[in-house]
Give the backbone structure.
Amino acid sequence: MALIPIPAPGAAAAPTLRKIAIEEHFQDPAFTTTDYAAVAKLGGVEVGFMEATMRRARDFNSSRIEEMDEAGIDISVLSLTAGGIEMMRDHGTAVSGARRINDFLAERVREGGGRFQGFASVALQDTDAAITELERAVNDLGMVGVMVNGYIEIGDDPQPHYLDDARFDAFWEALAELNVPLYLHPKPSVPAVRDAWFRGREELAGATWGFAPETATHTLRLVYGGVFDRHPAAQLILGHMGETLPFFQWRIQRAFEYNPYNARPTKRLQDYLSDNIHVTTSGHFNSQALITSLLTMGSDRILFASDYPYDIATDAARWIESAPISESDRRKIAYGNAEELLGLGDKKDA
């Protein structure tokens, strides 16, 4: 008797897991530098890598969309790449630059056929102007939050201005009232720190290592500086699986409790990570790190991102599709949490 064959497994293509990616950068169209060697040195990467990523960052309609399609990304939330408005020391240049960038981004979103949303840029060199632009970007242009590329550089002041400074309290209040998050993105540390840490080891200066402690320290300033106590509804997003904080949170809190100084937040770091902070998978496609973040913060606080153009969306997609987590958590991370936090479900239905 002849055997009766059955259809080969996988003969029909399985549906792709839907994704929303929320750390996907573009470049300022006015960025005209050809000194990629200097930019590459700040990031600790090869010149060729920087040239290629900047070409990718300027693309909206060809390779970016192709990569999204291959990765199953329905929506990319676009943001201006570092150094951004935050490095524009001149007050007027920063204010006009933020408005120009947001108008440019809003046009790309309108042209994108539903594939793009945007994080606004703001000129925190002037808090009042930043609030005005934030309100315009959210209420008039439809932006879903704001991207801040690290500390703020102001005028001739050599000191970096971090977001725990009281001068920014009104901005945090505006974010909470508008119910939109702030995505805190890395930038290179101030020159004195870079010189002390990375002289002779420039390869460590960027995403390899330097960006994480810079951004983690900025975040800890927010936590222990009382920003989330003064603004309990404020929501912060960190990329790269939390810039080491989900892994290191227990020791940080343990050691902090012995400090003799004035900082006395009302909750533990672990609580702020669960109440006010979200992390994304941008540029960190590793299951051990993901599970640590799940155990620290829960699946409601983790969102999918690829870190385009600095990383590859298809690599991020293949990883999250097979990571050893529950399917419920996978759907939350891939798209559900972004819909909830950024209101993208409402935008899709509209």
